[in-house]
Design goal:
alpha/beta; 7-stranded parallel sheet; 23 helices; 44% helix; binds zinc ion
Length: 532
Amino acid sequence: MGNAEIALTLESYAALLDLAGAGYYTVRAYRRAAELVRETRAPVADLVRAGRVRELRGIGPGIERRLRELVETGRLAELEELEREVEPALVALARFVGLSSQRLVAVGRELGIRTADELRDAAVTGRLREVKGIGPSTERKILDGLTRDRRAGRRGLTINRARALAASIAVELDGEVAGEVRRWRDLVYELAVVTTSRVAFDRLEASPILVAVVEREPARVVAVTVEGIPVEVTLTELRAFGTALLRATGSADYVASLGELPEAPTEEEVFERLGRPYVPPELRESPFDREPPTLVAVADIRGDLHTHTTWSDGKASVAEMAAAAIERGYEYLAICDHTPNVRVVPGLDADALRRQAQEIAEVNERVAPFRVLRGTECDIRRDGELDLPGDVLDELDWVQLSLHAGQREDEVRLTRKVCEAMRHPAVRCLSHPKGRIINHRPPNALNLEAVIHVALETGVAIETNGLPDRLDLRDEEVRLCVEAGVPIVCSTDAHSVRGLGNMQLTVATARRGWATAADVLNTRPLDEILRP
Ligand SMILES: [Zn+2]
Ligand SMILES: [Zn+2]
């Protein structure tokens, strides 16, 4: 049993535990274990057999016991028991059509319904209404949900979660990820996988993660995960793989704009036969005619300019973060811990920043020519003042501004405050300008046009933050900056060594905003960062 399959089983087990009302920490432990197994290079089955799996961080005795059962028997008895108990297919369908899962499970038990087809049937024939409390509106909702707009009213997955899920499903189906995930949308409503494996396609319904099938055609199936996320699976022949991948990647509008698609084994060949230049998936959001630019890539990035350490709320030391940045092939790394105004986490005042300077100097002696930059994520206070004195800001290599409180202020006040703060001569970058938290907090009222205007005047760059629930600036806003000629900074806002890996998310966001390497400040060598 391979790591991907083990991870997928743990993932389903976590989802079922969640449904069964297990505690938050238990569910999280299994989700994390799934992630860990997926990322481990060595075959986890071998580690289990050798009794060494506990050496992986986060694997305790309970998880070890289940891993052993899984590796030795190929099954997890508790998972099968939970499947009988919590009816994952009905829960998935409920979430998919937007009903309470308890309700649909009760209805399903009363009428003996277990699949999407049976549910659709019961709705069409009026049997659903035999159940007390089910009226025409619920019936309509179920029918609509099963047949029409699949994204209406549902909550999307953040891209990192969607990527992990899609990757597992692609491995299971021996296929390739397409759809919104491949286009790196910040919120994903539907997953898509293209496979050439008839065997995998035919046994899709046995998958522990695709618990219900809602649409079925000879070479295309839409199934649903326990979370109610629809997954479109396309079966194609190798000679038409490029065509199928292009179609499944979308967007529908973009694909339609290409006209009739020729059959070809790769996407590159499809574009070639269409007589068009290749268009990267990130740009296929809506139809366009101009020649696509060469977009910025992770390999162009020379350093990360927004990271935290144990001095504030990070999990790693300056030295550990530097070592990890060197391993990524970077030339520099800016440490930008918080300032005191943040309050909910420790912030550094002038004294603390100067003590941190000594530690950074010591690390720099050991890692040269790599360079750790003294930076700050300086809060803009409620009154508009910067949260550090000017002489301290002048000492620093990299000053970026952030607004953490007061996100609900009106447009005029908020914009004035941020624009004034940007005019401080030490300031180099504005972080997560719109303050949104995906699925949690809407963007603030900051007027981006005004900010771009001041950025052009002052030379201040604007960040696209790589935290998966921020991605702020977002794609369209990046594009406004790029078109105006304001430099973008692709930063991870990493709070751990692992967090540095979110560079691919911020770069993808910049790519969706049509940014080339020349548009992104941290593709430039260190001396250009230090001396603008
Ligand atoms: Zn911040
Ligand atoms: Zn930060």
